[in-house]
Design goal:
about 425 residues, alpha/beta, Rossmann fold, Helicase, Ruva Protein, domain 3, Zinc Finger, Delta Prime, domain 3, 4 domains, five-stranded parallel beta sheet, two-stranded parallel sheet, 21 helices, 7 strands
Length: about 425
């Protein structure tokens, strides 16, 4: 049985690898690692069909290392331990370099499965290369993540995809033997969504369904693909455009548009945790203290959909999206931390005022650490006016409450406390 086109033209050497020039170009970090023969444990993070598995294979081949591979979908702790034991037994048998263990979709591994990798990675029995389509900060345990370098792989550009089609026409024996002309490629590129595997699968499907001579046009491609398929690629441009429209609809207080874009993502098979995570960020960035309950609602939504999954999660996501869209808005907290970070960059590491410093030792007390600090609860209304900022930036106001009922109440509270200091 003939292998799929994507497998038949899979590159074997780094020079033939298309895309990811920031990693595999002449000055790319992975190129330099391979040249030096020093391969650290890695996590490849990026959308499907962009060459994560291919790159792992090439690294193993060009660094002359034994290569073991597991899929997190079908492998368990026992499989991991079997591979590690095999690697330990063969250590030094074929090469002095430690083997590479490639784990596809490592985000699907449970905590215990990821834990089983720690010792081998720490002791250097294997060099781990994990591939994930999900943010490793959320899906890979911290102990393992700290032992790996994370590299972001990008979706294929239009130029990359066109080069891939030309390679298929020239280098694959089956495709090259046919009379094929690509008159129009826009539909192929659009439907692929930056996924090289998807592009080649569609191209091969069209070729296999036509008699020669074969002229590839947009109409021909669309006629071979189910027209009722929702054109939403979780890794391509639609992914970013639709989540952007969703967030902007909530920020703009339009629950109708928010639910529409939510439905587009659900029908396209988007990850429920991705949607919930974005609403969690929005609840603080765009609503904040105008309605503090929004953050609680969004966090509970994230926890709930993580436990439940589709199809029931659509109801919870809808409830949260409508609540957030219908809530008063404020970006005051977002602006405050942005202003504070800018001030830190401009002023550097300013000294903490003596009266605010901790004084756990006698020497520190003798140096006046903590002297003249006013304990707020010892004063009327639990407040004592004093300076909390470094001397160089005294009275700098970074937080400006928004114009909504809750933050207007906060403004009045702060105005009474800091009448002579901040202009609230």
């Amino acid at each position: 049985m003939k292998a799929p086109l994507a497998e038949r033209i899979r590159p074997k050497v780094l020079e033939d690898y298309i895309s990811q020039q920031h990693l595999v170009g002449a000055e790319g970090s992975l190129t330099q690692h391979i040249k030096r023969g020093i391969i650290p444990s890695l996590i490849f993070w990026g959308p499907p069909g962009i060459g994560k598995t291919t790159l792992a294979n090439i690294i193993a081949k060009e660094s002359n290392r034994p290569f073991y591979t597991l899929s997190a979908i079908s492998s368990g702790v026992k499989d991991v331990r079997d591979v590690i034991n095999s690697a330990k037994q063969n250590d030094g048998l074929f090469t002095t370099k430690n083997p590479i263990l490639f784990i596809d979709e490592i985000h699907r591994f449970s905590k215990s499965q990821q834990d089983s990798l720690l010792g081998a990675v720490e002791k250097g029995w294997v060099t781990l290369i994990g591939a994930t389509t999900e943010n490793p900060s959320f899906e890979v345990i911290p102990a393992l993540l700290s032992r790996c370098q994370v590299y972001i792989l990008n979706a294929f550009s239009k130029t990359d995809l066109e080069l891939l089609l030309q390679r298929a026409l020239k280098e694959d024996d089956f495709i090259a033997s046919k009379d094929i002309t690509i008159k129009e490629s826009e539909a192929l590129l659009k439907i692929s969504g930056g996924d090289a595997r998807k592009l080649l699968n569609i191209f091969e499907l069209v070729v296999n369904s036509e008699d020669e001579p074969i002229i590839i046009t947009n109409d021909l491609v669309l006629s071979k693909i189910q027209k009722n398929t929702v054109l939403y690629d979780k890794a391509g441009e639609q992914h970013y455009d639709i989540i952007s429209a969703f967030i902007k609809s909530i920020r703009g207080s339009d629950p109708n548009a928010a639910v529409y874009w939510l439905a587009r993502m659900i029908e396209g098979g988007e990850d429920v945790k991705f949607i919930a995570r974005r609403m969690l960020i929005l609840a603080s960035e765009d609503i904040g203290n105008a309605n503090p309950t929004a953050l609680i609602m969004a966090n509970n939504t994230f926890q709930a959909v993580t436990t439940i999954g589709f199809p029931e999660s659509r109801i919870i996501l809808s409830q949260c999206a409508i609540y957030l869209a219908s809530s008063p808005k404020s970006n005051a907290s977002y602006e405050a931390i942005k202003n504070a970070q800018q001030l830190v960059k401009e002023t550097g590491d300013l000294s903490v005022p003596l009266h605010l410093r901790n004084a756990p030792t006698k020497l520190m007390k003798e140096l006046n650490y903590g002297k003249d600090y006013k304990y707020a609860h010892s004063f009327e209304n639990n407040f004592a006016e004093q300076e909390f900022l470094p001397d160089e930036i005294i009275s700098t106001k970074l937080f400006e409450p928004g114009n909504n009922s809750r933050e207007n109440s906060m403004r009045e509270f702060l105005k009474k406390r800091w009448l002579n200091k901040y202009n609230y």
